[in-house]
Amino acid sequence: MNFDLTEEQALIAKSARDFAARVLAPRAADRDVTGRFPVEELQELASLGLLGVTVPGAFGGSEAGTMAYSLAMTEIARADASVSVAMAVTNMAAELICRWGTETQKKAHVPKLVGGPYLCGAFALSEPQSGSDAAAMKTTATPAPGGYRIAGTKQWITSGTHAGLFVIWAKTNPGAASRGISAFLVEKGTPGLTVGKAEEKMGLHGSSTVQLHLEDLFVPEDQRLGREGDGFRIAMTALDGGRIGIASQALGIATAALEQSARYASERVQFGVPLAEHQAIRFMLADMSTALEASRLLTWRAAFLKDQGLPFTREAAMAKLYSTEAATRACDSAIQIHGGYGYTREFPVERYLRDARVGRIYEGTSEVQRMVIAREILKSGVLS
Ligand code: CAA
């Protein structure tokens, strides 16, 4: 593994950093209050090639690989995590179509996903009664002339209010547990697909999270992704890659928390000296920085393995587990360093903590990551 970035990776990171500083950072606090969905921001991300960093050029992507994607995600999340989650889910949807779709499906959907026309994508796996236990979903896809009729309810659907394309999982064989699940591509506005209740969340206010009602939703057979019964494997492989994105997002939020804390500690004077002169504060900054670098190494390693075409399930789970836990600790320390001010909206650190917290839940809870890691070491050995 090489720690030197390629010219292309450095360029993508710079492009994301410049965009984040110019467009996202000045609006992030306001978006947190208003909950405004980042429509123009996603359009600009698409035009910069940042919605499809890992997607082949033939389908409108930047074809720059997972390391570049991780760097871009980190920069976007450092400015506004709400925008980064829409970017993460869109990239995950585009990647899974590139991997599992037919040529016609790829040509029809991927350029629209990463290039702007769909604005963003959504990943409809979870249901009210099945989150961690994804295979226990109840939504069904029943054969109908020319395709399937889908019925059920999906829960926690990120970007559900604005996504132009939904990847929807449903049981084509309800008796067959995880092997009875199939995946479908459904465009926004398809009759039978209704956006339901929007969740009022603790953080990520600029990201929409909704229920989806699927009622007599007809999906033609040529919009099934992969074979019947492939759906669970498609979801799991997509989430492996997605978890590198969420680890990168956590890294971005933690970076912002550390930067803000170092700045504040240098300016705020207590007991006659800047906070940064107090060992208690210095130790907090040191611990935050050490955990941030450990997160970066785990995340980059998972990205490197994925880019090499090597197995990375365990490493992605480790990166997500560690980085999201470390980010919430770092944001909590950031509030502590800011004292009472940290608990107010005068400083961004309380937003960072609220935004970071869901990283330990979505795209697989920390407990699910531990299940995945344990399963992998017991299957393949302790050293990868
Ligand atoms: N790659 C390929 N195949 C995999 C796989 C992987 N990473 N993980 C599992 N599989 C395969 C298994 O090999 C097995 O295949 P066979 O039937 O051929 O043997 C099959 O899938 C079933 O595997 P398990 O028995 O391990 O499945 P399980 O039911 O015990 O579940 C789990 C395992 C890891 C807990 C899984 O259910 C899981 O990841 N749950 C969390 C779901 C999740 O992350 N949801 C996030 C929602 S999306 C989201 O949050 C996006 C957003 O909007 C921000």
Kindly describe this structure.
The chain has 384 residues and is of the alpha+beta class. It folds into three domains: 7-119, Acyl-CoA dehydrogenase/oxidase, N-terminal domain (Butyryl-Coa Dehydrogenase, subunit A, domain 1, Orthogonal Bundle), CATH 1.10.540; 122-229, Butyryl-CoA Dehydrogenase, subunit A, domain 2 (Beta Barrel); 232-380, Butyryl-CoA Dehydrogenase, subunit A, domain 3 (Up-down Bundle). It contains ten helices and ten strands. The chain has helices at 7-34, 39-47, 65-79, 81-100, 103-115, 231-267, 279-307, 313-338, 349-357, 366-380; strands at 121-124, 140-144, 147-158, 165-171, 181-187, 193-198, 209-220, 224-225, 269-270, 273-274. The protein has a four-stranded mixed β-sheet. The longest helix is centred in the middle third of the chain and has 37 residues, at 231-267. The two termini are 14 Å apart. The mean pLDDT is 97. Acetoacetyl-coenzyme A binds at residues 85, 89, 123, 125-126, 132, 134-135, 158, 178-179, 232-233, 236-237, 239-240, 313, 362-364, 368, 371-372.
